[in-house]
Amino acid sequence: MQEKIQQADGKLGILIPGLGAVATTLIAGVEAIRQGLSQPIGSLTQMGNIRLGKRTENRYPLIREFVPLADLKDIVFGGWDVYADNVFEAASKAKVLEPSLLAAIKPNLQALVPMKAVFDKSYVRNLDGSNVKQAATKYDLAKAVMDDIENFREANDCSRVVVVWCGSTERYIETGRVHETIEQFEEGLRENDPMISPSMIYAYAAIRLGVPFANGAPNLTCDIPALMELARRTETPIAGKDFKTGQTLMKTILAPGLHARALGIRGWFSTNILGNRDGLVLDDPDNFKTKEVSKLSVLDDILRPELNPELYGELYHKVRINYYPPHGDNKESWDNIDIFGWLGYPMQIKINFLCRDSILAAPIVLDLALFMDLSKRAGMSGIQEWLSFYFKSPQTAPGLRPEHDIFKQLIKLQNTLRHMMGEDLITHLGLDYYQDLVEAL
Ligand SMILES: NC(=O)c1ccc[n+]([C@@H]2O[C@H](COP(=O)([O-])OP(=O)(O)OC[C@H]3O[C@@H](n4cnc5c(N)ncnc54)[C@H](O)[C@@H]3O)[C@@H](O)[C@H]2O)c1
Questions:
Q1: Residue 426 within a domain
Q2: Can you give the CATH number for the domain in which 268 is found?
Q3: Same structural domain for residues 276 and 313?
Q4: Does residue 42 carry a pLDDT above 90?
Q5: What letter would DSSP give residue 401?
Q6: Which of 10, 23, 365, 370 is most open to solvent, judged by the fewest CB atoms within 10 Å of its CB?
Q7: How far is CA 119 from the centre of its chain?
Q8: Residue 243 to residue 37: CA distance in whole angstroms
């Protein structure tokens, strides 16, 4: 496979629908890093190492030196938003990064002006922007997005492009008839079927062009049979859903540990307050429902109550998000976990995480863009399950349970990279050389 991977020559365009808090924190961050003002903390592609071979070989290269990834200096950003603010203005309003940092990179951010969005207020009732495309049909809107992608590629002399959805969470919908086949989906586009959401239109446009598409929100978007089939036909990598940050990141770190030690869990109550635009959108019950489904799914899959009814059969799991403007992007979350141990004796764990949502999400967007581009150059298409590591609600092949345990997700990600580069997969067995070491003492 290694010989087949095309090198990351030329520029990589990262196009983002939704230039809000997460996207502007990423773009400003990459600019600051390129100018030597900061470090890409939290990005596995930039700061992570990978073990190769046996433990005795002591080979731990940086991931970016092991696999051919686009260099940060070769990235060009662009995107769409329903508000016309340039990236400097949007980042200033998001109030994630210090004004002094933004001032140092102001001209580069000001130059980034969002393209007109595909938007439908019935999917996000709490937003009201006017930087929106007008067209007779959803099919025309999809063609307009395809033109945007091609024009961007040409204007910026990009050899490759990827798209990562960082737009608001859309209202909850389930897969329906129009999502089942490519033909039904295209007919729905021409007939303005209300079950086709804006994010699906961006996804369709990208996938039609063979441009990798990742979805950072919990909306269905490319997680429908029609777009999975289109991705297969156009040999396009796709991935989703919902960046794994904050409270859910903690949950998928802690729950596998409790489960590993066969400790029981009776209840897990999670509540959050946040005051950014994401919080405002999620204040609408239909949009919160999309997020709730994504957040609730993780524990069942990690704990498998059907296999361990004594430990997890009675588990009560509740997730709440409350819009609280004074906290802005600095989300605060509380978890109360009722666990029990030997002979059923109860214990409690309390977590109070004072996190910064976009600071945790920005490196995920960067890693996803770089790995999706790698997948494409490696000839890997369809659902990229090896990138589950980054998602709250990983997209999988139909009928397959998603893997939520972050440690298993990491093993899968690293083994995929080893596989791509022709290195031995690591099973952590070690018996083949352990005895030799003991005997050599
Ligand atoms: N920050 C995190 O930790 C985190 C974690 C998981 C998922 N997410 C998801 O990522 C997304 C972005 O989060 P954020 O904090 O940047 O939110 P945000 O509200 O600051 O930014 C979203 C942007 O998308 C724009 N938008 C909405 N619909 C659009 C459309 N159809 N086309 C183009 N632009 C559109 C909005 O105008 C807004 O500027 C949200 O869906 C959020 O739920 C964020």
A1: no
A2: 3.30.360.10
A3: yes
A4: yes
A5: P
A6: 10
A7: 21
A8: 26
- Please tell me the distance between residue 294's alpha carbon and the centre of ligand 1 in angstroms: 15
| 249 within 8 A of 406, measured Cβ to Cβ | yes
Q: 157: left (phi > 0), else alpha (psi -120 to 50), else beta? A: left
Q: Please indicate, yes or no, whether the overall pTM of this predicted structure exceeds 0.70.
A: yes
106 preceded by a cis bond (ω within 30 of 0): no
Give the range of the structural domain holding residue 309, as residue numbers without chain letter.
Answer: 247-354
**197 & 324 share domain:** no
Residues 309-355: tens digit of each pLDDT: 999 999 999 999 999 999 988 889 999 999 999 999 999 999 999 99
Same domain, 331 and 390: no
**Same domain, residue pair 150 and 36:** yes
Domains held by the chain: number: 2
Element (H, E) at 200: helix 198-208
Look up residue 284 and give its two tokens.
């609408």
Q: Whose CA is nearest to atom 3 of ligand 1?
A: 357
Query: Does any domain span residue 43?
Result: yes
Q: Is the dihedral of CA 294, 27, 167, 21 positive or negative?
A: positive
Distance (angstroms) between ligand 1 centre and the Cα of 351 equals 26
